[in-house]
């Protein structure tokens, strides 16, 4: 079952600088990435220094953040406060504004030395899920795909690869997978007709996908991120997606259905994830690390595709495109 497993871990750190324990963890070859949270961030210069300290230990490490806009925005002081994606849809030039948002977000994230933001959200706003809500572009799948595609175009032009989440769609299930195990009782045909559509439309433009910690009991008894059916048959097979699959945070309550952190990372990698996130629980991260070491897991070659392509431009605020993008977002009253 575990022969030839590929994958690695993405972990986190507690503070705004690295401890000796952090450095030791990051030196482990099975650790392939690090995600930063609000607690790790003071201002742009400090984030640049933290990223430089991490890269001095492991130049190859993938550095990530959640910088969607709206309420999910970790980089705040000294950064543009982007709107929630749902706010874009009501504008007559929503597609153009979505592209500008994607470019502004990616430009700022890359400028501090990070590789990527886990964005965009491709979930649909079914007016049911409080955890998704305004993070979604739209309730209509075609319109959601159009706006997310524009956002991806902006990200890509800044030099950032896009990650669509949360496959195959978290917008219907009402429970919050951070604290519960959500269920989506619909049939595969219903999900395919609506929530899967943005992933299908954008499968060739997404560099990565993050599956949902949601159970779709009519399709598979396992949450999507632990399901070979969802990841291999549907995502890789039906949608012909060949990019990176990141697990959602394996410390979330929605992942506990398969056991402890060692069981979760093994289940995620066995299902087909290329990188498993274990965050906000150092003991769990160490347990997961021991598991991947014991299983002799090899890094996935796909991960290199996620590296940021433009770290140097820290003077971006003088760029005419930057000024034009901010002007357009201000004119639409999307930012202050």
Automatic annotation (TrEMBL):
Catalytic reaction(s) noted: Hydrolysis of terminal non-reducing N-acetyl-D-hexosamine residues in N-acetyl-beta-D-hexosaminides
GO process terms (BP): carbohydrate metabolic process; cell division; cell wall organization; peptidoglycan biosynthetic process; peptidoglycan turnover; regulation of cell shape
PROSITE patterns per UniProt: GLYCOSYL_HYDROL_F3 (PS00775)
GO MF terms, alphabetically ordered: beta-N-acetylhexosaminidase activity
Pathway, per record: Cell wall biogenesis; peptidoglycan recycling
Main subcellular location of this protein, as a coarse class: cytoplasm
Binding residues for substrate: 66, 74, 135, 165-166
Keywords carried by this UniProt record: Cell cycle, Cell division, Cell shape, Cell wall biogenesis/degradation, Cytoplasm, Glycosidase, Hydrolase, Peptidoglycan synthesis
Compartment annotation: Cytoplasm
Site note Important for catalytic activity, residues: 176
Family annotation (InterPro entries): Beta_hexosaminidase_bac, GH, Glyco_hydro_3_AS, Glyco_hydro_3_N, Glyco_hydro_3_N_sf, NagZ_Beta-hexosaminidase
SUPFAM superfamilies reported in the protein's UniProt record: (Trans)glycosidases
This protein's record includes keyword rRNA processing: no
Keyword Cytoplasm: yes
EC number(s) from the headed UniProt entry: 3.2.1.52
Residue stretches making up the Glycoside hydrolase family 3 N-terminal domain: 18-297
Catalytic machinery residues: 178, 248
Function statement: Plays a role in peptidoglycan recycling by cleaving the terminal beta-1,4-linked N-acetylglucosamine (GlcNAc) from peptide-linked peptidoglycan fragments, giving rise to free GlcNAc, anhydro-N-acetylmuramic acid and anhydro-N-acetylmuramic acid-linked peptides.
Family label: Belongs to the glycosyl hydrolase 3 family. NagZ subfamily.
HAMAP family the record matches: NagZ
Name the UniProt record assigns to this protein: Beta-hexosaminidase
Origin organism lineage: Bacteria, Pseudomonadati, Pseudomonadota, Gammaproteobacteria, Pseudomonadales
Designated gene of the protein: nagZ
């Amino acid at each position: 079952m575990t022969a030839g497993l590929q994958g690695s871990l993405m972990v986190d750190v507690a503070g705004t600088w690295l401890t000796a324990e952090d450095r030791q963890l990051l030196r482990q070859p099975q650790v392939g990435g690090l995600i930063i949270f609000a607690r790790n961030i003071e201002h742009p210069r400090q984030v640049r220094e933290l990223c430089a300290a991490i890269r001095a230990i492991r130049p190859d490490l993938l550095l990530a953040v959640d910088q969607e806009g709206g309420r999910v925005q970790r980089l705040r002081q000294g950064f543009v406060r982007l709107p929630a994606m749902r706010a874009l849809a009501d504008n007559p030039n929503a597609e153009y504004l979505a592209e500008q948002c994607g470019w502004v977000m990616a430009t700022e994230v890359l400028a501090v030395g990070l590789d990527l933001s886990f964005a965009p959200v491709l979930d649909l706003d079914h007016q049911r899920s409080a955890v998704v809500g305004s993070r979604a572009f739209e309730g209509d799948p075609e319109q959601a795909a159009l706006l997310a595609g524009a956002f991806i175009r902006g990200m890509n032009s800044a030099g950032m690869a896009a990650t669509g989440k949360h496959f195959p769609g978290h917008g219907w299930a009402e429970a919050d997978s951070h604290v519960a195990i959500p269920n989506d009782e619909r049939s595969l045909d219903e999900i395919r007709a609506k929530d899967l559509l943005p992933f299908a439309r954008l499968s060739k433009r997404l560099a990565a996908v993050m599956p949902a910690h949601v159970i779709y009991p009519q399709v598979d008894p396992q949450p999507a991120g632990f399901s070979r059916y969802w990841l291999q048959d549907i995502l890789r097979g039906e949608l012909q997606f060949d990019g990176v699959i990141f697990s959602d945070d394996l410390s979330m309550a929605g992942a506990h259905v398969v056991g402890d952190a060692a069981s979760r990372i093994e289940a995620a990698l066995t299902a087909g994830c290329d990188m498993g996130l274990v965050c906000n629980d150092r003991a769990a991260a160490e347990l997961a690390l021991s598991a991947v070491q014991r299983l002799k897991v090899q890094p996935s070659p796909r991960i290199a595709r996620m590296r940021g392509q433009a770290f140097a431009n820290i003077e971006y605020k003088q760029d005419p495109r930057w000024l034009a993008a901010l002007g357009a977002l201000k004119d639409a009253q999307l930012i202050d």
